[in-house]
Specification:
CATH architecture: Alpha-Beta Barrel
Largest sheet: 8 strands, parallel, barrel
EC number: 1.-.-.-
Order of helices and strands: EHEHEHEHHEEEHEHEHHHHEHEH
Number of helices: 13
Strand order of the largest sheet: 1-2-3-4-7-8-9-11
Shape: globular
CATH topology: TIM Barrel
Distance between the termini: 11 Å
Number of domains: 1
Organism: Cryobacterium luteum
GO molecular function: oxidoreductase activity, acting on paired donors, with incorporation or reduction of molecular oxygen
Keywords: Oxidoreductase
Protein name: TIGR03557 family F420-dependent LLM class oxidoreductase
């Protein structure tokens, strides 16, 4: 098992995210991953820097830490040729430490270019074509593509790594699992659903299995709950809500009925290592082997110390059994 740290790009500016990544390497995290958003989920978070700039800076500031997008949508706000080029460049800058996490997107970030945000069936069809184009460009040479939704004309990526980046495809159900098997080298999920892992493996998928475990560390449980409720109540609403709402104000409205008790049930809140192990265990028990820890608590420095001294030794011990 590899243990990662979720860089919460919606809550921190670019310089702080780079600093956190460097600290993550120091305390023993194997990888960091960062979402590719244009907007934060809610106004209280207050940030959303450009992921490709931040991860490039992290690649320059670290030596062994693996990095990943968690995840980027290559089919609406971006053309997939741009993502293919960006990923190839970042793979080179990081000496092969980069994983391209991809997904079909959320309205929150994709509607901003004025192309609309299609229904899920059309989104998946566009996403399918986008991944075709990325793979095509990573083969080298000039390439063309004439799809129903996306086109490519005489495009070539001149700077390609010897080995293409690992591509992990975000999944939430059978149709996206099928895309992960078809195009991906692994999968990415945010829910501890064993059926996603089993479906991927049964269909022949053999790659790494990325996930995010929701934690909120603080010196007291109450402080952790308050912080997570303020900035992450939206996450309790579920993927069907998260994919469809257009702006932070809409997420604030949707999260208006989320109680602090709902946060306690989903997040590991406070300093109790056993509760953190319990939440992380939901994902490892489901079969995920790349677990990114997302700390929604108020104290990132305290969380890093907690991870290094208390949580990591327990996780390493458990994975070695």
């Amino acid at each position: 098992m590899k243990i990662g740290y979720k860089l919460i790009a919606e809550s921190f500016g670019p310089q702080e995210l780079v600093r956190q990544a460097a600290r993550a390497e120091q305390v023993g995290f194997d990888f960091v991953e960062m979402s590719d958003h244009f907007h934060p989920w809610v106004e209280a978070q207050g940030h959303s820097p450009f992921v490709w700039n931040v991860l490039s800076a992290i690649a320059a500031k670290t030596t062994t830490l693996e990095i990943a997008t968690g995840v980027t949508c290559p089919s609406v706000r971006y053309h997939p040729a741009i993502i293919a080029q960006a990923a190839a460049t970042l793979a080179l800058l990081s000496d092969g430490r980069f994983t391209l996490g991809v997904g079909s997107g959320e309205r929150l970030n994709e509607h901003i270019v004025g192309r609309g945000f299609p229904g899920v069936r059309e989104r998946h069809a566009m996403f399918d074509e986008a991944l075709d184009i990325i793979r095509l460009l990573w083969k080298g040479g000039y390439q063309n593509y004439d799809g129903r939704y996306l086109k490519l004309e005489d495009a070539r990526i001149f700077d390609l790594p010897d080995t293409a980046p690992t591509m992990a495809v975000a999944v939430s159900g059978p149709s996206s699992v099928a895309l992960a098997v078809k195009h991906g080298d692994g999968l990415f999920a945010v829910e501890p659903k064993r059926e996603l892992v089993d479906g991927y493996r049964a269909a022949g998928g053999t790659g790494p299995l990325f996930c995010e475990a929701p934690l909120a560390w603080a010196r007291t449980e109450e402080a952790a709950v308050t912080a997570a409720h303020t900035t992450n109540a939206w996450s309790v609403t579920g993927w069907k809500v998260m994919a469809e709402l257009p702006n932070p104000v809409n997420f604030e409205a949707a999260a208006g009925t989320v109680r602090e008790q709902d946060i306690r049930e989903q997040f590991a809140c406070g300093p109790d290592v056993e509760r953190h192990l319990e939440v992380i265990g939901q994902f490892t028990d489901a079969g995920f082997d790349h677990v990114a820890l997302m700390n929604a608590g108020p104290d990132q420095a305290g969380f890093f110390d907690f991870f290094e001294r208390t949580l990591r030794p327990r996780l390493v011990s458990a994975s070695s059994r």
